[in-house]
Design a protein that fits this description.
2 domains; 32% helix; globular
Length: 177
C-alpha cells in the first residue's frame, strides 16, 4: 500500500543502520499465501537470532489480535511500542522531533487526491478532514519517512508521477541526485 520503490527502502534501511529483509509476495496474493510466506520468514528470523518484532499499530485491536495470533508459537514476541498513544499528540511529537515524511498513498474515498505527495507536517494535520486520523491509522494515508533522528542522514527524495488506481492515489517518490 505504501507503493515505495525498493531503492528507497534500501536507502532508508541503510540510513537507519538496520538490515532490510526482503519478503517477496506474489501479486495478487491470497491471505493463505501471505500467511505461509510470512511463517517461513518468521522461522528464518528466529534462526537468525531475532526475538522480537515491533509493530507501529496504535489502536486497531483486530489488527493487533491478528498479529499476535500469527506469531503464536513462532518464537517471536510481538511488541507494540506506540499502542494506545493519542494519535494527534503522537503525530505532533514526531514532527517536532524532526521526522520528515511524504504521503505516498491516499484512500480517495477519504482524502482528496491533492493530499498525495504532501509533506507530513503541522499544515497537513490542520488540513485533514476531522474524521481522518492524524497518523492515518485507519488506512486514510501511508507515508515514507526520509529524514529524522533515527536516520544517520536525510534521504534526498523527489516527487514523480501521481497515479490513481483501485480507489487509491499513489505518489512515486525517487532518490534525487
Amino acid at each position: 500500500m505504501h507503493a515505495v520503490r525498493r531503492s528507497l527502502l534500501e536507502a532508508q534501511a541503510k540510513a537507519a543502520g538496520v538490515p532490510l529483509w526482503d519478503v517477496d509476495l506474489p501479486s495478487p496474493c491470497s491471505n493463505a499465501d501471505y500467511e505461509s510466506i510470512m511463517s517461513e520468514t518468521c522461522k528464518a528470523a528466529v534462526q537468525s537470532g531475532i526475538e522480537y518484532i515491533a509493530f507501529g499499530d496504535l489502536f486497531l485491536t483486530d489488527i493487533r489480535a491478528y498479529r499476535e495470533k500469527q506469531l503464536e508459537n513462532s518464537g517471536l514476541q510481538p511488541i507494540f511500542p506506540v499502542w494506545g498513544m493519542p494519535t494527534r499528540e503522537l503525530a505532533l511529537s514526531m514532527i517536532k522531533s524532526g521526522v520528515r515524511a511524504k504521503l505516498t498513498c491516499i484512500d480517495s474515498k477519504v482524502l482528496a487526491p491533492e493530499f498525495v505527495g504532501r509533506e507530513f507536517n503541522e499544515q497537513l494535520l490542520s488540513d485533514l478532514p476531522p474524521e481522518t486520523d492524524p497518523c492515518g491509522e485507519n488506512g486514510e494515508f501511508h507515508t515514507f519517512v526520509y529524514a529524522g533522528p533515527m536516520l544517520e542522514r536525510d534521504l534526498p527524495v523527489e516527487l514523480g508521477e501521481i497515479v490513481a488506481r483501485d480507489g487509491f492515489v499513489f505518489a512515486d517518490l525517487s532518490l534525487s541526485q
